[in-house]
Amino acid sequence: MVFLMLCILLLAITLFMLIRTFVLREHNRSSAPQTAPIEESRARQVLSQAVGCPTISRMQSEETDWSAFDNLGALLAASYPRCESHRITEGVGSHNLVYRFEGTDSGLQPALLTAHLDVVPVQESQWSHPPFSGIIEDGYLWGRGSFDCKLQVVTILQAFETRLETQTGSKRTWYVAFGCDEECNSLEQGASSIAAYFERQNIRFSLVLDEGGVVSERYIEGFSQSIAVVGIAEKGYLDLELSTKRSAGHSSTPAFPTALGSLSRALAILEQKQMHRFITYPVKQMLTHLGKEGPFAYSLLFLNLTLTKHLLFAVFSKSPTLNALIRTTVVPTVIHASDQSNVIAQEAKAQVNIRLLGDDTPQKVVAWMHKVLKDPSIQIRILRFTPPSNVSRVDDPAFMCIKQTIQSCFPDALVAPYLMLGATDARKYQHLCDAIYRFTPARMEKSEVQRMHAPDERISLDNIDHAVGFYRKLIHSW
Fold first, then answer.
1. Which terminus of the chain has fewer Cβ atoms in its 10 Å neighbourhood, N or C?
2. How many CB atoms lie within 10 A of CB 101?
3. Per-residue 3-state assignment (H helix, E strand, C coil) for the chain
4. Burial class (CB in 10 A: 0-12, 13-18, 19+), 390
5. What is the reported pTM?
6. Pairwise CA distance, residues 73 & 187, whole Å
7. Which residues of the chain have pLDDT under 50?
8. Which residues are catalytic?
9. Which residues contact 463 (CB under 8 A, 6 or more apart)?
10. Which residues touch 240 (CB under 8 Å, ≥6 apart)?
């Protein structure tokens, strides 16, 4: 009798899941407008030259070669003279670029497109193409910053230049802001300075769009469709210093454990252990959107989280990218002990980088570390902390406009909100706008995305054209 009751209960649960999944999938089906990418050879040429300006930002401002930023600004001014006539030159920071394009309806709240001018350093010996050559070869434009994120800088300006050339205005006033220090976001010279200018002018925005998710192919194993992910929030950022002291001395007569050995064991434990898993609002929204349009097996998994949450955790934990969506990640990145091979250091130090989910705090992370390490000699100090960003809504008209624009430019793609794993300049504007989103209009596989900040960064020529078309449509539509 008990077995029969269990079978009936299991059947009822299965039937409930199937009916619920069918209802949600059917309710969401719609067709997207079909449009072809727009060819913009000028954007390709300008981007190639822009990559040739080595705008590397440094944590110490005085170590940055600001002449490279001046050269990039001069290049963009010469390439897009109509945009240059709309540039704001006072009060926005000496190495930032900010533009204002007046709309026809002053009653509409303005919108902001933003990106950054700076790039990360390179090790030239690891590159197959010179990193600051901007070489176009095999259908790609190669070089540091080609994807992250001079692609947006150039294609945004190209879109506005074309509209100015054809005297095609927009209803809404648009601002464009390019900061100079996003890759060193503890500095205050870039987007922070620009945001302070907007605040002084009492400007609020109806939409802010920054770099972020792409149209990803094979983002989740088993999805045949491309998935365009739009960031509606960012994880928090935390740097911790771990240190310990032991006996120092000559390497010929070592006493164990050494400070370096003790610290290394602690770091190995942190790699083996992982913090707890949970589903935040942005991730739940992503799963709901994908569940309504994706393969049926994933629909069952994504649309019935109350019953399938632990199975989803098991699936996502196997992928570094998906795993980072469901937990606060902890990874050692820097270690220092002795400066000489024959000297045992008295003290060893390491830096650990943490990307925080939702409600996790530095205090929670430190408490978790002490619990799993079980070593009172390990001292933990907070070096730097930026809390998780605000979360933007998916039912906002601004999000719907971005979604429709993506569907127009990439008609085969499913569009879903998601949680940004890295940090962007977007959070610097969150006191000026409630509708902040993060999307890079490019179609890329995981292997291409992984070239960002790595050797052989590149962007396909087709993606340059896609980006120009996307921004032109968005400017017109919003």
1. N
2. 21
3. CHHHHHHHHHHHHHHHHHHHHHHHHHHHCCCCCCCCCCCCHHHHHHHHHHHCCCCECCCCHHHCCHHHHHHHHHHHHHHCHHHHCCEECCCCCCCCEEEEECCCCCCCCCEEEEEECCECCCCHHHCCCCCCCCCEECCEEECCCCCCCHHHHHHHHHHHHHHHHCCCCCCCCEEEEEECCHHHCCCCCCHHHHHHHHHHCCCCCCEEEEEEEEEEECCCCCCCCEEEEEEEEECEEEEEEEEEECCCEECCCCCCCCHHHHHHHHHHHHHHCCCCECCCHHHHHHHHHHHHHCCHHHHHHHCCHHHHHHHHHHHHCCCHHHHHHHECEEEEEEEECCCCCCEECCEEEEEEEEEECCCCCHHHHHHHHHHHHCCCCCEEEEEEEECCCCCCCCCCHHHHHHHHHHHHHCCCEEEEEEEECCCCHHHHHCCCCCCEEEEEEEEEEHHHHCCCCCCCCEEEHHHHHHHHHHHHHHHHHC
4. middle
5. 0.87
6. 20
7. 1-20, 22-23, 25-39
8. 118, 182
9. 151, 441, 442, 443, 444
10. 351, 352, 354, 362, 365, 366, 369, 380, 381, 382, 383
pLDDT at 26: 42
CA–CA gap between residue 187 and residue 180 (Å, rounded):
10
Could you tell me which of 240, 283, 275 has the C-alpha nearest to residue 421? 283
**Cα–Cα distance measured from residue 330 to residue 239, given in angstroms and rounded to the nearest whole number:** 10
Q: In residues, how long is the chain? A: 478
- State both tokens at 477: 């539509």
Q: Which two tokens stand for residue 59?
A: 């944590």
